[in-house]
Design goal:
Structural class of chain A: mainly alpha
Number of strands of chain B: 5
Order of helices and strands of chain B: HEEEEEHH
Helix content of chain A: over 70%
Structural class of chain B: alpha+beta
Distance between the termini of chain A: 60 Å
Distance between the termini of chain B: 53 Å
Strand content of chain B: 35-45%
Shape of chain B: globular
Oligomer: heterodimer
Number of strands of chain A: 0
Number of helices of chain A: 5
Strand order of the largest sheet of chain B: 1-2-3-4-5
């Protein structure tokens, strides 16, 4: 009789231990998901409260670029400064966005970094730099590159404005 | 469907041409007809003709409802292709660069640059 009860208690303990283990795993997964949701919520909230200034900065930069780009050949330096400014703003915005929404911002930062490395005029480069450019095939900073950058910047501003509206809705509901 | 990038580059080209004075914009002869109570025109509507196609550009306010009786107005720019009677035959998808185009058009059609140049010649 004692043996039967002991076996029953042992079996029950083993089962409960297994169930406990499974529950721990499920709870762990739920906490992980919840943590991610909280992190997303925090970022969305941060974006909602802090992004307006950044978006306004990007709008100003877009306006400046649209003014300068019609005289591209004489305004290369000024355009590069605007690209650098927009890169800094985009980096700041990236920190406030949830991972799933950073694609456009990331792409603009990447493009800006590329533009900053492009020489304004190949003819002005030293012989070593010319040789290096020839080997790694870097083109000159040209109008097409700047056109693409402006289009990307405009797309980013449009998408950030849409995100702001979407976040406002999702934070209310 | 027209690729988005193609439209974006077209808008950018219009900005450049407007800045360089290669295309001129006038106050639109046909005022856009907007849905009553939902949208309202802000300032003037502008139009231009390029290669026998007429385009119209204007700023408008649009109403967004947050509840049954609660709403707010937001500002947008619309750019469209129009026929001879001013009917919209194609609306370009909205993107932020339209704001830059609108600013360039307003500046060029106001003639403010020429005025300031003349003023300094006095």
């Amino acid at each position: 009789m004692y043996q039967t009860i002991k076996t029953f208690v042992d079996d029950a303990a083993n089962w409960l231990e297994s169930i406990g283990f499974i529950l721990t795993i499920i709870t762990g997964i739920k906490v992980f998901i919840l943590d991610k949701r909280i992190s997303d919520f925090n970022k969305k909230h941060l974006f909602q409260t802090r992004s307006q200034g950044h978006i306004s900065d990007l709008k100003n930069i877009s306006k400046n670029i649209s003014n300068l780009i019609s005289d591209f050949d004489n305004k290369k330096t000024e355009l590069k400064i605007e690209v650098k400014r927009s890169e800094e703003v985009a980096k700041s915005i990236k920190k406030k966005l949830p991972k799933k929404d950073i694609k456009n911002t990331k792409s603009l930062i990447k493009q800006a970094a590329k533009i900053e490395k492009l020489p304004e005029n190949l003819a002005n480069l030293s012989a070593t730099q010319k040789l290096l450019n020839y080997i790694i095939d870097i083109s000159e900073f040209n109008e097409d590159t700047m056109n693409d950058y402006y289009v990307k910047l405009s797309g980013l501003i449009t998408s950030l404005e849409e995100l702001k509206k979407d976040y406002a809705k999702s934070l209310i509901s | 469907m027209i690729p988005k990038n193609k439209i974006s580059l077209f808008i950018l080209e219009l900005i450049k041409m407007t800045k360089k004075g290669q295309i001129s914009w006038q106050e639109s002869f046909h005022t856009p007809i907007l849905p009553d109570g939902i949208e309202r025109l802000v300032d003037l509507a502008y139009s231009t003709t390029i290669k026998e196609k007429s385009f119209r550009l204007y700023k408008y306010n649009t109403k967004h409802f947050t509840d049954e009786y609660e709403y707010y107005w937001s500002e947008r720019i619309r750019f469209e292709l129009i026929d001879n009677d001013g009917n919209s035959t194609f609306e370009f998808p909205y993107e932020y660069s339209l704001n830059d185009l609108y600013d360039a058009v307003r500046e060029s059609s106001s003639g403010i640059n020429e005025f300031i140049d003349d003023f300094f010649k006095l």
